[in-house]
From TrEMBL:
Pfam families: CutC (PF03932). Gene3D superfamilies: Copper homeostasis (CutC) domain. It comes from the Bacteria. SUPFAM superfamilies: CutC-like (SSF110395). This is Copper homeostasis protein cutC homolog. InterPro entries: CutC-like, CutC-like_dom_sf. PANTHER family: COPPER HOMEOSTASIS PROTEIN CUTC, COPPER HOMEOSTASIS PROTEIN CUTC HOMOLOG. GO terms for molecular function: copper ion binding. Belongs to the CutC family.
Length: 232
């Protein structure tokens, strides 16, 4: 990946992936079932998308809506799926789980990254529901492979999280703040000037790449609009 600002786009299938790459996406987040805010895709879906594009793919590891990993059986199932995806060639992932009191679920996270074997991964928007986001960052600071936080800065979205995002960007390099901040969650084009001025360099879109809604595919033109705005 080049030094330009990163544009990551959610892809559900090969058509999404091809359109996103053609529009200028640098990376895709692969999910299924956006009605549940994005769950783990099948191995077959990953294989088909991998064959369709040549940009990096980050595969979601989550079985149910929300930010709980589930019981021991569910965590074991998720580990099995991660192993299967690794065997199919997946080498980048997205995950993140909280306990009921808003702390990082270290047991579930550590079980997964043990089988990811050093792969790069994103801690997703669970950080926006954490009891203490600074404490979460410090607890995860030494996790192998963690190189990105997907965050809106607030549970309610980027509109309410702009100040937090700017403040965290200013702490880059401090313990827990080394990973890239990938801004996503209600992100709009009009947010970009302030975010870019604050030093943010990575952006994540889903619905914004689909002008006709989630029932329609990614639109290459929409992705290109974001690419051009980010690069301006």
């Amino acid at each position: 990946m080049s030094d330009r600002a990163v544009l990551e786009v959610i892809a559900l299938d090969e058509a999404d992936a091809v359109a996103a790459q053609a529009g200028g996406a640098d990376r895709l987040e692969l999910v299924t079932d956006m009605a549940a805010d994005g769950l783990t895709p099948s191995q077959a879906a990953f294989t088909a998308i991998r064959a369709a594009v040549d940009i990096p793919l980050r595969v979601m590891l989550r079985l149910t809506d929300g930010f709980a990993a589930g019981d021991a059986r569910q965590v074991a199932d998720l580990v099995r799926r991660a192993v299967a995806l690794r065997s199919a060639g997946a080498d980048e992932f997205v995950l993140g789980f909280l306990t009921p009191d808003g702390q990082p679920d270290l047991v579930a996270i550590e079980r997964l990254i043990a089988v990811l074997d050093g792969c790069h991964w994103t801690f997703h928007r669970a950080i926006d529901r954490a009891a203490d986001r600074d404490h979460l960052r410090r607890q995860l600071a030494d996790m192998p492979g963690l190189d990105t936080y997907l965050t809106a800065g607030a549970a309610t979205g980027v509109d309410d999280g702009l100040d937090v995002l700017a403040a965290e960007a200013a702490r880059t390099g401090e313990p827990g703040y080394e990973p890239t901040i990938l801004v996503g969650g209600g992100l709009r084009l009009d947010h970009l000037p302030r975010l870019r001025a604050a030093g943010l360099t990575a952006f994540h879109i889903g619905g914004a790449a689909r002008p006709n809604g989630w029932a329609a595919p990614v639109a290459e033109k929409s992705v290109r609009t974001w690419r051009e705005a980010i690069d301006a």
